[in-house]
Design brief:
The chain is globular. Strands 8, 9, 10, 11, 12 and 13 form a six-stranded antiparallel β-sheet that branches. It has a four-stranded mixed β-sheet with strand order 4-5-6-7, covered by helices on one side. A three-stranded antiparallel β-sheet has the order 1-2-3. It starts with a helix and ends with a helix. By secondary structure, the chain is α+β, with helices and mostly antiparallel strands.
């Protein structure tokens, strides 16, 4: 399976990929394979063998995570003759991409009942997140306030004062009803926002979760964020959908006056895997 995925994604003959994978698993180095084992790889050059090695490492890590999922479910005594768990082939395709990727677990019962469970896979990322900015490989993308001048590689983090928190509930489609219920019971009025709308084509999200709606990968990030009311001519890459009564344009990640803004204070959760993945994606785009 792994060799087939690599061959298809790299557009290389399967038998040559199989030869390279065998040699890599035996401990041979990329230069050695490309120079002295041409008969096994169809004369792949060092760049091609290196690409096979990188893909093999990512897919092997995916296999390890898949096995961990199965072991966890099995350890709970929930895998029986009536239950099976599979992973669609597109999971392997997605794992070839250098970004946070989605893994779908398919649970099937003996009667044919089936459900799908998404799991987000986040690679280990060597990155440092502080109040000053995002640092990787000795290069910094700075966090600056709205009052500061964003020279060079920088992201403006606007003040949360007077803004709504980045909370949401999909039931707020009928916000007047929920507001009136809260008021009649003497409870705090809910914020009235309904989830994220995400531009997956944004270059700042290239290495992050590629869905156009809220997924668990955003949960920790939203806990550090607020939503910023924006003018009609600003089109956010990540927008919080407002209720139809207020209908405000609420941004979380957006470009204004040629400068990128992010309302999430990533330095508050610097060790969270999803926060680190977003920081990596931002750093890659703005460095």
């Amino acid at each position: 399976m792994i060799e087939e995925v690599i061959a298809r994604q790299l557009q290389l003959p399967l038998r040559h990929v199989q030869g390279a994978v065998r040699l890599l698993r035996e401990g041979a180095t990329v230069p050695f394979i490309s120079r002295y084992r041409k008969e096994a790889t169809g004369s792949m050059d060092e760049v091609q063998v290196g690409a096979v090695k990188e893909a093999l490492e990512r897919l092997t890590a995916l296999e390890s995570r898949r096995a961990t999922v199965l072991e966890t479910i099995g350890g709970q005594g929930r895998l029986t003759d009536a239950v099976s768990v599979t992973f669609p082939s597109e999971c392997y395709r997605d794992a070839m991409q250098e970004r946070i990727t989605g893994l779908t677990v398919v649970l099937t019962l003996a009667d044919g009942t089936r459900n799908h469970y998404p799991i987000w896979l986040i690679p280990p990322i060597d990155i440092r997140i502080t109040r000053e900015g995002i640092e990787k490989d000795g290069r910094m993308v700075a966090f600056v306030s709205a009052e500061e001048k964003a020279d060079g590689a920088a992201i403006v983090v606007p003040s949360a004062e007077g803004q709504l928190p980045a909370e949401y509930c999909t039931d707020f489609w009928c916000y007047p009803m929920f507001r009136s219920i809260s008021e009649s019971m003497g409870k705090p009025v809910p914020v009235g926002t309904m989830g994220l709308s995400i531009d997956t084509a944004s270059p700042l999200l290239k290495r992050f979760a590629q869905e156009d709606y809220t997924t668990p990968a955003w949960y920790a990030i939203l806990q550090t964020a607020h939503v910023q009311r924006l003018p009609a001519d600003v089109h956010p890459a990540v927008q919080m959908i407002d209720n139809t009564e207020r209908c405000a344009r609420l941004g979380i990640l957006y470009q204004q006056d040629g400068v990128w803004h992010l309302t999430a204070r990533l330095w508050e959760k610097p060790d969270d895997p999803a926060v680190r993945a977003l920081a990596w994606s931002l750093w890659e785009a703005l460095k």
